[in-house]
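Supplementary notes for students who missed Thursday's class. We covered one full example, reproduced here. Read the sequence, then the structure, then the short commentary at the end.
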Amino acid sequence: MFVAAPYRGPRFGTPKKLLDALLAAAANRGIKPIFLDTTDKFVAAHRFYDKNGFVEIARGDLPASFPVMAVDSKFYRKEIALP
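Structure (token representation):
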């Protein structure tokens, strides 16, 4: 998930709105674990994921089918409640 710099931060709340929409759509489809990846350099993203209940995991804890990009080095998981 990428948000253009002018639309980040509390003024717009775009990242949180996008994440909430994604989590709601996943829950409605019965998808309980959410996995994501990022690089070590995106420190603001790390804080955002932590703040929103994601837990950092080891690369080896990803599902075998997870498409890891070569630049990614940090991985996260979140269990969501199903409706």
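Commentary. The chain has a mean pLDDT of 92. The first strand starts at residue 33 and ends at 38. If anything here is unclear, bring it to office hours.
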